[in-house]
Amino acid sequence: MITTDICIIGAGPVGLFAVFEAGLLKMRCHLIDALPQVGGQLSEIYPHKPIYDIPGYPAINAQDLVDNLMEQIEPFHPTFTLGERVDSLERQPDESFIITTNDGTAVHCQVVVIAGGLGCFEPRKPEIENLEQFEGKGVAYMVKNPEQLRDRRVVLAGGGDSALDWTIFLANVAKEVTLVHRSDTFRGAPDSAEKVFELAQQGKINLVLQSTITSITGNGHLQEVNITAKDKTVRTLEADNLIPLFGLTPKLGPIADWGLSIDKSAINVDTTDYSTNVERIYAIGDINTYPGKLKLILCGFHEAALMCQSAFKYVHPEQKLSFKYTTVNGVPAF
Amino acid sequence: MIQFTVEDRDGTRQTLEIPEGINLSLMEVLKASEYNILATCGGLALCATCHVQVLNGLDALAPAQDAELDMLDTLPDADSDSRLACQLRVDERLEGGLFRIRGAEQ
User: pTM for the full model?
Assistant: First the structure.
């Protein structure tokens, strides 16, 4: 069990800067992020893009900002759990929390700060009647262990790279592979697209183009997939597995079930301290919302500072908070 | 003024008039016009919650760049007339267009 004062969910720029503000108030932080590296969107999506609205930097590359933040918080020795997604939150009798990730990592903390940005990226689900009913019963949104598909009749849906790649791979593993795609062309890697057309010509896979899956049926487990073509003709395929591969979309994830007040996928906060409706849980950065909210890194930094002033009372209940400038006090490392 | 028509998820149509040179994306204009659009990623072509179907005026639009095409490719309900509103600048190319809102509400 990891023990810390503040557990920060999300290691993007705002989560990282919260470590600094917390450190000034002698609060230790542990950060959890679903991505395998720190920096959030900045490192994952646009590391080489310049950002022009960080005060004091006329322009700074996104990755440089992340690197600078890591240097800035180094004196406070934050600890990290990366590549794991936060799953559950359990309130303890003394009001503290234990947070557990999908890999079973447990963190005991006094305060939870959600700095989750866009949220975590989850598979996008197509609109198919009964789809969720068959999740884990033949329907999955990713291929975790291809061996489980050996000698099965597998239907894949989608037109992106992962749909193409898995079609090619499973052609030699599954008993029968069908790829259903709404268009008659693939924009994915041209080599993969060519290979898929080749496999179809050789009769090694079924390629169903200009079509979408409209419904599925089964008795406890998936049995049939109904496909409707653009010309409205319907055909039914017997199948053991259906794997819709329609990319990822950002969602709140399990945080949505923590009893927080949520408005359009954002967490409502009180702007005096960015606290949520649940005591000891705060939300800062792009994931929160309030009247006048701006999704800017600099606003997230401000929110982090105010949040820490408020969280102090839970971490050091016996102490009186006195505000000190770094110009007077320096950075009291620990 | 640039005029184009927006069809909401319930089929209601409304014509919007936007001043020229406003330097906004169609997503931003739709949000400002109180349409229910998540626009989770804020215009990075990452979430596709601003997906629109261009029922009229598709050819006049600036062609989609790779990031947009890649995202459209992954959508289960996209078609050849699909675009991401966040990647469309509101300018004279939208004049007379008809856009149907398709993006997820949740």
Answer: 0.80
